[in-house]
Amino acid sequence: MPSTDTDYRQLKEKVEILTGERGGKNDAAMRRKDFDLIVRRLDATERGLTDTEKALAAVVVPGITIGAIAAPPDAATFNALVDQVKALREAVEEIRRALA
């Protein structure tokens, strides 16, 4: 309990600073439990990002091996194109699962 008027004013000033009523509102104090909760959420988010980054790094996106063709493709060329589209679709699905 403040014993003098000066002690009261000093205590009042400290409380106003902590609540953000004096100085900048961005400098207001925060309860330790709220801060700890934010830190835990940031840690969990960072771990989640790391897991996502690892999953994305494991995705193999195949290169395109068939170039432009000047005539209708024969069966072998067509089947090769279908296989490439299938491989690309599987890579996109792996990316989607990694981001989910």
List keywords for this structure.
100 residues, mainly alpha
Global mean pLDDT: 85
Protein structure class: mainly alpha
> Proportion of β residues?
under 5%
Total DSSP helices: 3
Shape: rod-shaped
**Helix proportion:** 55-70%
Alpha carbon gap, first and last residue: 55 Å
Low-confidence region ranges: none
User: What's the β-strand tally?
Assistant: 0
Summarize the structure.
The protein is mainly alpha-helical and 100 residues long. It is built from three helices and no strands. It has a domain at 31-99.
Verbal overview:
This protein has 100 residues and is mainly alpha-helical. It contains three helices and no strands. 0% of the residues are buried. The protein has a domain of 69 residues. α2 packs antiparallel against α3.
Describe the secondary structure blueprint for this structure:
Elements: H1 5-19, H2 32-57, H3 75-99
Helix pairs in contact: 2-3
